[in-house]
Amino acid sequence: MKHGNISVFVPHNGCPHQCSFCNQKSITGVQYQPTPEDVDNAVYTALAFQKKYDYEIAFFGGSFTAINREYMLSLLNAAYKYVKSGDVRGIRLSTRPDAIDREVLDILKSYGVTSIELGAQSMCDEVLSANLRGHTSDDVANSSRLIKEYGFSLGLQMMTGLYKSSYDRDVYTAKRIIELAPETVRVYPTITLGGTMLGDLYLKGEYIPQTLDESVDLCALLLKMFWKNNIEVIRLGLHYSEDLKKGMLFNNYHPAFKELCESKIFIDEFRKQFGIDENACFNESVNVTVSINPKSVSKFVGQGRENIKRLALQGINVNIVQDNDIALYGLKIVG
Ligand code: SF4
Questions:
Q1: CA 131/CA 162 separation, integer angstroms
Q2: Would you state the pLDDT for residue 20?
Q3: Nearest protein Cα to ligand 1, atom 1
Q4: What is the distance of C-alpha 120 from the center of its chain?
């Protein structure tokens, strides 16, 4: 059965301070604090829309385990009755790595929580400190191990292109995350928002955001690293919202960012198998036939047929044949 989240945003609640990049209103478009009735409404709406999903009620947006305890329990209570009735499989939440301990995990276990996502963001302490995260990479590692010890599904979130980070530091973070063996990851390229410390640094010229192309290059590599280690990437890039669009000071956002990265992986693989780099150019056009899994054709072709056009500029005309035996993220040049 297909998995689905019934999302309830708990914006910027429980955060001890403001991280350098964070303006929760811009990211989620929500500032209202949900009530237990909002949880009920979200569940009713989801079940009325699509009953056959394997649902988790998902408390996203802030630092769920650091919010006022009474308020946290009221939301968990509202959600847990749907776990007990079997309408949903469990509860998912996101929180800070330093807001996890055995006492909290005991509570979450008793309320039917199934999955916990930690906002790790980076595994470099210098980057964490520069971005005012208020926790260390050891907090991420220790909390991750504890979450797994309790039998929860672990999710880790990382950000790329943060202040004081670099390509190598982001790759290092992905490697450390892989060592912690989460079931899922989310990768968020940093978006520079007004009303944040990062926004101020950018305006002063002290922070240079990654361009969209740099971000795609890096995140395509991270995606491959996670795939190779059987870690599901459940999100790559922020969800679009009008507030996000309005709040951005530097435009390196793309609403279909994950597809851009996947297409990059496909064109790189094609060039590798064909023995060329991106600068190669044939004087006379060559025709090449490539076999691809039917589910991956659009990823190979790219948005607006971008990959096909790029290869055509190199003098390569691609003919695609669909083959179910080709792996989802593979391709084979057959002629
Ligand atoms: S902990 Fe999360 S929600 Fe809180 S300020 Fe930092 S990024 Fe924003």
A1: 7
A2: 96
A3: 15
A4: 12
